Amino acid sequence: MKLAGSYRLNVKKEIVWLALNDPNILKQCIPGCESFEKKSDTVFTVAATNQIGPMNATFSGTVTLSNIQENLSYSITGEGQSSVGFANGSADVKLIEENGSTTLRYEVNVNVGGKIAQLGSRLIDGVAKKMSDYFFGRFADVVAPIKKVKDSGRIVKEKRVEMVKSNFLNKYIYSAILVLILLLVVIIYFVSR
């Protein structure tokens, strides 16, 4: 599946370029990222946990930067494995500067396989779009936050995307409910005998 979009950032492209190559900033932008470690200038190891439909999946894999044209463009390629399948994808990122502002354009291509691919293309497409929008929106929020002046004269940062919250509690709440239902079934079974 292919996705595309763009963000306008009120900073020079050199600043955006440095941020696109900063592991600490990239880690903040990957949904559910637990670790992001630099192996070389262009290869990183990553682990991230995300909810895809009813499944919580922890993916671990690599992210590689290629086709690098400094301050202009590069490609990000990632691949990850999980107990519920695999995901791989690439994003071509281009920077265009006009009047001191930079437009970040991206085209993303994503492939999934295994159990998660059985969830259906509509669900997978929706999750991929949400994650792609989150990554680039979060990147824009970190690098060039939108600042608005309130009536009181106070400057407030406006977010392009909301932080993705961990599904840690959801996983345990659903597990607890399932255990309670199973206990009720067992109790009813023994009481009705």
Helix content: 25-40%
Query: Which class do the helix and strand fractions yield?
Result: alpha+beta
Instruction: Determine Rg (CA atoms, Å).
Output: 21 Å
- Low-pLDDT residue spans: none
List how many beta strands DSSP finds.
9
**Reading side by side through the largest sheet, how are the strands ordered?**
1-7-6-5-4-3-2
How many domain regions? 2
Please summarize the sheet with the most strands: 7 strands, antiparallel
* Strand residue content: 35-45%
Order of helices and strands: EHHEEEEEEHEEH
Mean pLDDT: 78
Q: Identify the overall geometry.
A: globular
* CATH architectural group of the largest domain: 2-Layer Sandwich
CATH superfamily of the largest domain: START domain
Q: What is the CATH domain class of the largest domain?
A: Alpha Beta
The N- to C-terminal Cα distance equals: 54 Å
Instruction: Provide the CATH topology of the largest domain.
Output: Alpha-D-Glucose-1,6-Bisphosphate, Chain A, domain 4
Name a few traits of the molecule:
193 residues; alpha+beta; 7-stranded antiparallel β-sheet; 4 helices; Alpha-D-Glucose-1,6-Bisphosphate, Chain A, domain 4
